[in-house]
Specification:
Nucleotidyltransferase, domain 5; 3-stranded antiparallel beta sheet; 5-stranded mixed beta sheet; flat; about 325 residues; 11 helices; binds magnesium ion; binds adenosine-5'-triphosphate
Length: about 325
C-alpha cells in the first residue's frame, strides 16, 4: 500500500494494482461516520456539497489526522482484500526517506488500527527506484527523485542502499499554493486549492511553448478528469501561470542541486552519467525534468507511469519477500 499525501494505491500479491484513489475522506458535518472516500469525496469537495467536510489525512507525506487515516485505509484495505482482511494481512508500505521515527511509528499504528497484521515499511525512494525499473543493487550510484503532492523524496542509491537521501517539503501542493497566491496578487481572484490544482494540470508546463492543451476530456491523473469549462468559468488569465510554476520549480531544483553537491566527487561524477529517474505525479509537469537536469547536472528523465512507481516497487518487493534480504536498510533482490 502506497499511502501518499494526495493518492492511495493498493496492490495485492500476484494481483496487480486494485486501488488508485485520492487520499480523501468525506464526513457529514458534525457526524463521526464517513460518507464517502476517494474519488467520490473529491467530487464532493469540487462541487462544494453542503454540510460535508472533506479531510486529507496526510500532510507532507506523513499522517496528520490519525482517525481519518485509519478510516480511509481500513476502507481501501477492505475493498482490496474482502474477507481476507480477517486474517490480519501483512502490509508492505513506504515512508518518506527522512521521516522521523515518530512519523514512521504513526504510519504502522494507523495500518494496524485499520486491520493490518504485520506491517513492514521501507524507504520510499527505494520503492520508487525499483518501480521506475532501476537495478538498485548495481554498484554504480543512480538517483531517484519522487515528486509527490506533499514532498519530494530524492536519493542516491547503490548496492541496494540509500547512500544519500533527502525529503524536501516541496511537492505538487506547493505548486498549487504558488498559483493560488500569484493569481490572487495579480488578478485578485481567490481560488480554492482544488481549483489551483486544476489550473496547474490544465496548463501543465513550466514554459509557455510547452503549455499545449491536452485533448478535451483527457485524463491528467489517475483520479482526476480534466474539464476545460471549469477553468474558463474561473475567468483566470493563464498567460503567466507557467512563470509562476517555473519560480516554484526553481526552488525545488536548487534544493536538489544542493543534495547533489553534497555527494562525494566520485559519486557525483557517476550520477552525472547514470542519471536520475523522476517519479511521482510532479514528474509529469512538462519541462520539470529538463530544468532539474540543467540545475543539478544529473540527467533526469520521467519514469513510465510515474504516479504508480512507488506502488509498483512495493509490489516487486512483496512478490520477492522470500528472496529479499532486508539487512538493516539494505535491500537486495535476488530474483527480480
Ligand atoms: N500532469 C501533471 N502535471 C503536474 N503535476 C501533476 C500532474 N499530474 C499529477 N500532478 C501532481 O502530482 C501530485 C500527486 O502525485 P502523487 O500521487 O505522486 O503524490 P502522493 O504520492 O500522493 O504524495 P506524496 O508522495 O508527496 O505523499 C499532485 O500534487 C498533482 O497535482
Ligand atoms: Mg508518493
Amino acid at each position: 500500500m502506497d499511502v501518499g499525501t494526495a493518492n492511495i494505491h493498493v496492490a495485492v500479491k500476484d494481483g496487480g494494482i486494485v486501488v488508485r484513489e485520492p487520499a480523501l475522506v468525506a464526513y457529514a458535518s458534525g457526524k463521526e461516520a464517513a460518507v464517502a472516500f476517494g474519488t467520490e469525496a473529491r467530487q464532493m469537495l469540487e462541487q462544494g456539497v453542503a454540510n460535508v467536510r472533506v479531510v486529507q489525512p496526510l500532510r507532507s507525506g506523513c499522517i496528520a489526522d490519525f482517525g481519518a487515516a485509519v478510516t480511509l485505509l481500513r476502507h481501501y484495505l477492505q475493498k482490496a482484500l474482502g474477507r481476507r482482511m480477517l486474517l490480519g494481512p501483512l502490509v508492505l508500505t513506504a515512508h518518506p526517506t527522512q521521516a522521523t521515527p515518530v512519523a514512521r511509528r504513526a504510519l504502522a499504528q494507523v495500518l494496524r488500527a485499520a486491520g493490518a497484521g504485520r506491517v513492514i515499511a521501507v524507504q520510499k525512494s527505494l520503492a520508487a527506484a525499483i518501480g521506475a525499473g532501476l537495478a538498485i543493487d548495481a554498484p554504480d550510484t543512480q538517483m531517484v527523485i519522487d515528486i509527490g503532492a506533499g514532498v519530494t523524496d530524492a536519493a542516491a542509491i547503490s548496492m541496494g542502499m540509500i547512500t544519500e537521501g533527502v525529503t524536501i517539503p516541496i511537492g505538487g501542493q506547493r505548486f498549487d499554493e504558488a498559483l493560488l497566491r500569484g493569481i490572487k496578487r495579480q488578478q485578485d481572484i481567490r481560488l480554492t486549492p482544488a481549483a489551483a490544482e486544476e489550473i496547474k494540470l490544465h496548463v501543465g508546463a513550466l514554459d509557455r511553448s510547452l503549455a499545449q492543451q491536452p485533448p478535451a476530456g483527457a485524463t491528467n491523473t489517475g483520479s482526476f478528469t480534466y474539464k476545460a469549462d471549469d477553468v474558463k468559468a474561473f475567468g483566470v488569465q493563464l498567460d503567466d501561470v507557467p512563470a509562476m510554476l517555473y519560480n516554484q520549480a526553481l526552488l525545488l531544483a536548487d534544493e536538489l542541486a544542493w543534495t547533489v553537491e553534497e555527494l562525494p566527487a566520485k559519486v557525483r561524477a557517476q550520477v552525472a552519467t547514470t542519471g536520475a529517474a523522476v517519479t511521482g505525479g510532479g514528474a509529469q509537469l512538462r519541462g520539470l525534468p529538463e530544468l532539474l537536469s540543467a540545475r543539478t547536472g544529473v540527467p533526469c528523465a520521467m519514469a513510465v507511469d510515474p504516479m504508480a512507481c512507488t506502488m509498483l516497487g512495493l509490489q516487486a518487493v512483496l512478490n520477492n519477500l522470500h528472496a529479499l534480504s532486508l539487512d538493516g536498510r539494505r535491500m537486495t533482490l535476488a530474483n527480480r
